[in-house]
Task: structure prediction
Amino acid sequence: MGLENQTQVSEFLLLGLSEKPEQQLPLFGLFLGIYVVTVVGNLAIMLAIGSDSHLHTPMYFFLSNLSFVDLCLVSTTVPKMLLNILTHSKVISHAGCLTQMYFFTIFAFLDNFLLTVMAYDRFVAICHPLHYVTIMNPRICCLLVLISWTISLLNSTLHTLMLTRLSFCREHELDHFFCEISQVIKLSCSDPLINDIVVHFAAGLLGILPLTGIFFSYAQICLSLLRIPSPGGKYKAFSTCGSHLCVVSLFYGTGLGVYLSSSATHSWKTSVASVMYSVVTPMLNPFIYSLRNKDIKDAMRRVISKIPPCH
Result:
């Protein structure tokens, strides 16, 4: 074995979305703006829900958790990307790459589980309204969130531990703006078969099953809506699901596209899809939920009205 193959890579290079120097400043401005809007928007949702007792219900409890997770998700990737552009450096250490991947995987799967829990909440509210308070009591709501955190932590820990068994001794350039697990595995000079199996099994089990749960919930919701005689009643019932459906479509439409194509050659389209579900969706969530929700808008107005004016 040659010297090159005996040397363990201690750092990776994140090539980002573009290597053209003239595009770095526009990319920095774009992603800085997205990050600021994401932080402010999700913090506003959390603050509005926390400060208004009328919003202390299961639906808004899950929404505040989703906002927190979205804030964490985008914070695992964008700040490092901005720092690399600002310092003209593409380097991320091996430990830093594993750490970024660990937390990104936690929050990405948490997003997945929380969207499923929110679909179940809407299913109970519309299909079993008389039993809603009993079924979705505070203990059950906290338990559902705790289970989501536990599964996400165990899944991410498994992937990270599996990666520590791999050696990286030749290629160390990641054609991505963050350490995405399938792209990191492809750089290994060890046999990655077991890692690939675990990644695809986890993506299938923890991705497809929750999505199936969402489809089932909305199938039951649609059947219940068909039994409502008045058009106004149907619209009012389904309007509470509109925001959630928009977010589900954005997250799964782009997220599944990335992971279903992870075995293929990485392309620019894959990077764009990754940006959509990991950066753009967390930014749009506060707008989707607030613009379509009168209670959230009213709560935000009350929070803003309490902010003292600057002199």
Observations:
- The longest strand covers residues 11-14.
- The domain at 15-306 is CATH 1.20.1070.10 (Rhopdopsin 7-helix transmembrane proteins).
- The beta strands are 11-14, 91-93, 173-174.
